[in-house]
Automatic annotation (TrEMBL):
One of its GO terms (biological process) is glycolytic process. It comes from Brevundimonas mediterranea. Pfam families: His_Phos_1 (PF00300). PROSITE patterns: PG_MUTASE (PS00175). NCBIfam families: pgm_1, PRK14115.1. Its EC number is 5.4.2.11. SUPFAM superfamilies: Phosphoglycerate mutase-like. This is 2,3-bisphosphoglycerate-dependent phosphoglycerate mutase. The active site is at 9 (tele-phosphohistidine intermediate), 87 (proton donor/acceptor).
Length: 237
């Protein structure tokens, strides 16, 4: 049966600065690089050899995947990049410091924007510093001006069904190096997590989440490879 590993990118510079990042293309910190390499070591120790790695078009995810594969001795694995695995678009919160935003709008409102399933932040105003319409990576793409986890799932799910699921159904093991919210979307999809429960699912940076799947791609087992940094997982039926 196929195995899937979800790997959230290591700590980024804006994670360190406590800023809303979303689609902004920031790089890893030295700690983030170390997390990625450690993730690769754990992947190797688990005997996991993916047939392919899927990742987003953002540097922090791509470099995490590359560093993990290098550390695991799997540098010949083909890599597929797609914007639909990008982090959630944080709209008008993009670039803002999270603590300062809570002071301005109130912690309860910011918690709703960050953790509710279907309430997006205010939209990003066009023409500003973080307007992605001029980015060639998104030419002819339906660029959002904000996203909730729900709308993130709405772009991730078709990509999962068209590109990732067929590889798993063919019996191939797959590695996905992506972001907290795009990976939460996949977790919600696989484990059928209710809307009100997915908001409590947290995926640690750089800690590979291994999921065993049956022929119908239903999880039969799941575990974090670094048990010391594990978070609670949805129940496996």
């Amino acid at each position: 049966m196929p195995r899937l590993i979800l790997l959230r990118h290591g700590q980024s510079q804006w994670n360190l600065e406590n800023r809303f990042t979303g689609w902004v293309d920031v790089d890893l910190t030295a700690e983030g690089e170390a997390q990625a390499r450690r993730g690769g070591e754990l992947i190797a120790e688990a005997g996991f050899t993916p047939a392919v790695m899927f990742t987003s078009v953002l540097t922090r995810a791509k470099r995490t995947g590359a560093l993990a594969l290098q550390s695991a001795g799997l540098t010949d694995i083909p890599v597929v990049e797609d914007w639909r695995l990008n982090e959630r678009h944080y709209g008008g919160l993009t670039g803002l410091n999270k603590a300062e935003t809570a002071e301005k709008h109130g912690e309860d409102q910011v918690k709703i924007w960050r953790r509710s399933y279907d309430v997006p932040p205010p939209p990003l105003a066009p023409g500003g510093e973080f307007d992605f319409n001029a980015d060639p990576r998104y030419a002819d793409k339906p660029i959002p001006d904000t996203e909730s986890l729900k709308t993130t799932l709405e772009r991730v799910e078709p990509y999962w069904n068209a590109e990732i699921a067929p590889r798993l159904k063919a019996g191939e093991d797959v590695l996905i190096a992506a972001h907290g919210n795009s990976l939460r979307a996949i977790v919600k999809l696989l484990f059928a997590v209710p809307d009100d429960k997915i908001v409590g699912v947290e995926i640690p940076t750089g800690n590979p989440l291994e999921i065993d799947l049956d022929a119908d791609l239903k999880p039969t087992a799941a575990r974090y490879l670094d048990a010391a940094r594990a978070e609670e997982l949805p129940t496996v039926a």
